[in-house]
């Protein structure tokens, strides 16, 4: 299964991908996670993109496309993948189309009020990338990762000003991909407002 997860920041793409990868036995490839790993490891790519992520802007297409091209060549991606957060522009979608065919594009639909609630309450474990929400998916002990015991953090780009910018960037650059993939007959709309397990099962049903 070769899937793209499309939708605004905070719609729950990463949360559902972490479950769906077990259902389909395919890797979850998140470009945001790949960039954050590079930043954490202090690579040249990481140094280049750090300020861009903090502001909630998009990393240039060539840099992002090259990174995804390399990742899709890895052994585990040969049998399928969930691409989460890529493509985010028409140029990226065209480049992806030249790299591989897709089975479906899942469009996570959520209204703006819920998007802001989800982003502002998101907390993450920096070393594992595990995601929580202070109200909707709290850790067992407040502020602490359930498995590693590390302190949870709020991403710089989940603070108010960056959230506003990311929503504008989504509308301007990424939302046009909905029509792009609908025209190709690949798009599946999923109501992302339900609980994670309900979102997962409605997606699995829609993909049969
Ligand atoms: P979210 O899960 O909130 O949608 P991501 O983790 O997917 O956010 O992305 C975090 C940031 O990484 C983005 O705001 C952007 O700066 C960068 N990024 C991720 N994917 C892409 C992409 N496909 N093109 C350009 N920038 C990207
Ligand atoms: P995305 O990858 O689309 O940016 P995430 O999966 O990181 O979104 O989810 C954003 C926030 O919303 C996280 O704090 C997550 O715990 C929470 N969340 C995700 N899915 C749901 C859901 N179905 N209901 C309630 N909260 C959710």
Automatic annotation (TrEMBL):
SUPFAM superfamilies: P-loop containing nucleoside triphosphate hydrolases (SSF52540)
Domain of life: Bacteria
Keywords linked to the UniProt accession: ATP-binding, Cytoplasm, Kinase, Nucleotide biosynthesis, Nucleotide-binding, Transferase
HAMAP family (alphabetical): Adenylate_kinase_Adk
Coiled coil: none
Region described as LID: spans on this chain: 121-158
Segments forming domain Adenylate kinase active site lid: 122-157
Name of this protein: Adenylate kinase
Pfam family, one: ADK
Chief subcellular location: cytoplasm
Entry comment, domain topic: Consists of three domains, a large central CORE domain and two small peripheral domains, NMPbind and LID, which undergo movements during catalysis. The LID domain closes over the site of phosphoryl transfer upon ATP binding. Assembling and dissambling the active center during each catalytic cycle provides an effective means to prevent ATP hydrolysis.
Positions bound to AMP: 31, 36, 57-59, 85-88, 92, 155, 166
Keyword Nucleotide-binding: yes
Region (NMP): 30-59
Organism taxonomic ancestry: Bacteria, Pseudomonadati, Spirochaetota, Spirochaetia, Spirochaetales
One cellular-component annotation, GO: cytoplasm
């Amino acid at each position: 299964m070769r899937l793209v997860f499309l939708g605004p920041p905070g719609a729950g793409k990463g949360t559902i991908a972490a479950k769906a990868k077990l259902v389909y036995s395919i890797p979850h490839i998140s470009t945001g996670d790949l960039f954050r790993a590079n930043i954490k490891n202090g690579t040249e790519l990481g140094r280049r993109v750090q300020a861009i992520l903090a502001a909630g802007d998009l990393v240039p297409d060539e840099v992002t496309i090259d990174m995804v091209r390399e990742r899709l060549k890895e052994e585990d991606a040969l049998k399928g993948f969930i691409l989460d957060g890529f493509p985010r522009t028409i140029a990226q979608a065209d480049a992806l189309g030249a790299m591989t065919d897709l089975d479906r594009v899942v469009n996570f639909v959520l209204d703006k009020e819920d998007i802001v609630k989800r982003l502002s309450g998101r907390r993450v474990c920096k070393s594992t990338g595990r995601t929580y929400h202070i109200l909707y998916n709290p850790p067992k002990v407040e502020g602490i990762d359930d498995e590693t015991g590390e302190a949870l953090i709020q991403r710089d780009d989940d603070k108010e000003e960056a959230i506003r910018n990311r929503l504008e960037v989504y509308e301007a650059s990424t939302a046009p991909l909905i029509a792009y993939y609908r025209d190709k007959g690949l798009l599946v709309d999923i109501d992302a407002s339900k609980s994670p397990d309900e979102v997962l099962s409605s997606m699995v049903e829609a993909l049969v």
